[in-house]
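ok trying this again, last paste got cut off
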Amino acid sequence: MGLVFRVASTSGPVAREVYRLLNEIKLDSPVVTTLRGYSLEDSDVVIVVGDDKLILKTIFELGNRGNPILGVSEDPTKGFLSQCTINELKDAINTILKRTYHIEENTRLAIRVDDGQTVPAVNDAAIFPSRSATLMEYSLSINEEMIWRDYADGVIVSSPLGSSAYSLSAGGSLIHHDAPVFGIVPVNSIDITRRPLIVPNTSSIIIDGVSSKHGVEVIIDGLVRMPVKERVVITKNDVPCRFIHVDGPSSILSKLEKKIHLAEELLRIPPSAKLIIKILEYEGPLTYRDLVKKTMLPERTIRHALGVLVSRRLVAKKPLLRDARQKLYYLPAHVANTSLRS
């Protein structure tokens, strides 16, 4: 069994701390910034030091290689997918080397867009118009049986683990991570009878007949965008994602409470504010002018929504480096790590 360390940058403070620790414990392990094309043995353990987004990127890079992953957070509050902090990494390494850890397997989605290759996803497939604030039309079928035809902002299909991410903030059900099911959530449908749907994970979920004025795309785990011409087929992926826990049972359930509180807070804000959060989640930090352009909402509506979000600490702002008169709006860590994508 070998250990491979994945960091965002080999020259940053996180990498320096990893190198220092490896030198201290006299462990000769590679430190890499990507696993694409990297040769791994089946028994190798991947240790990801970074936030939840980096952990999701690493799983995406692994594809259908089933190597177990230990998530290590830089933040003392921990990310949703991490098991320990960087200050606890030395003890975690010793636990792994002694093989006294626990592995939790989580079902992934297998997503096929039109006639393309199948892509695995940890959390969800979010099918939305390419331009925000526009409706899309689509049909939902389960195992070739039509369920509904809908007009909505979009539709999300989530794994049990992903049910506590974007799906939850869109009004979906919270699913226990061991349940053999998937969740389907129509987003802001014009038909109030379109409610979240739970289906067996043996199902073939088909989103087809998609159309929107500016095109439709599927966003996989918030990382990859793929244009959709006609259909998206979602099934259970053959290989689950495997997380290492070094201190006993899964810590995921213990982290759900803060997600539930945040979801309740999101339900109390106006739709325009929810749209801004969604855009900041997918696009990253944006200026006021950027938000006006991407949402196509009236400036007065944007100002009011930002005022609500900043006052409730759901969005933060800082001066734009190239022009201090402008503000850059972004999701603070407690929202970014617990709301839509983690």
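PB: full thing came through this time. The domain at 3-106+241-252 is CATH 3.40.50.10330 (Rossmann fold).
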